[in-house]
Amino acid sequence: MGNTMKVREISTSGSHTLAIQTDGTLWVWGNNSSGGFANGVKNGSQLSTPIQIGLDNDWKLVVAGSPSFAIKNNGTLWGWGQNNNGQLGIGNQTDTYVLTQIGTDSDWKTVDSGSNMTIAQKTDGTLWGWGSGTSLGMGTQFALDNQNVLTPFLISTDTDWKQFSANLHVLAVKNNGELWAWGNDLLDVFGNPGQLITHDRVRVGTDSDWSQVAVSQGMSMAIKSNGALYTWGSGQMGSLGRAGSGDTPGQVGTDSNWISIAAGYYSCLALKSDGSVWAWGLRANGGGANNLYDAAPVQPNTDTHWTKVAMGGGLCYVVKSDQALYGWGARYHLFGYANDRPADNPVPMHWPL
């Protein structure tokens, strides 16, 4: 089947997957129900074989979602897909299914696509947002007016944001270890019980030793500076990876060597410093009918050479130290394995086919 695909970046929405190969080219596979193929149309077509998006080889970062985004080496930001709330940031609310540059700025550093809004950071450290005004943390007025923000809008002049993650809500950690949240908290994803919907940014607790965050539609997860892992929010399908309430952050096990995390739909994926990968929650190990979910972290295999994790829906990806891409989970998303059976262990993503 050829050599295993070598990737620099990987991101999946659960419907489609985007990857930047080591040569800087951008590729997609999966389902085109959200227009994620960037081929000018939105339909239910499926690809078990990847196709290249455009011909450029200078892509640096990619985020699969609805819409999807990618950043080039020159700092320009590009997007495509759903735009009903203006979450593409192109000045209108019209869906666009081809690569489209977001403004003319060339100082974008990172971006994340939420369910109805987008958050991005510039190289100067400032945070920008666009899409639904109820979710951007820009204050009550945008929410009361039901106002959508159609182009990138400065939502924080602070320049000390370290990392963030967006879905229905946003979690963001600062360089000083403080954790902040905004957006929809109906499932206690803020870790501040009773917050419901917050139109302004609120601090999560008083701890100042947070290091990394990841969120999904119904939960939050974060790593502290000592390597301990915490989860909170909805505990459905074992997604917290631990017993106890999800109202406030609770530690997953007692290990303190977690280094990277990814959150999907009621499922999580995490990497330890020893190179091992762990999964829990709904279909976290591709378990099919005989194992619907895992309520605590389990290893999909015993390899210890993993360096990167990504997940969305019931689909997991991991990257080895040689940049080879492996995946497992839900059916048609796994290119090169076109049968309709989930993979229950990491299998190599072969390229070319």
Automatic annotation (TrEMBL):
PANTHER family: REGULATOR OF CHROMOSOME CONDENSATION
PROSITE patterns assigned: RCC1_3 (PS50012)
One annotated Gene Ontology cellular component of this protein: cytoplasm
Protein name per its UniProtKB record: Alpha-tubulin suppressor
Pfam families for this protein: RCC1 (PF00415), RCC1_2 (PF13540)
An MF annotation (GO) of this entry: guanyl-nucleotide exchange factor activity
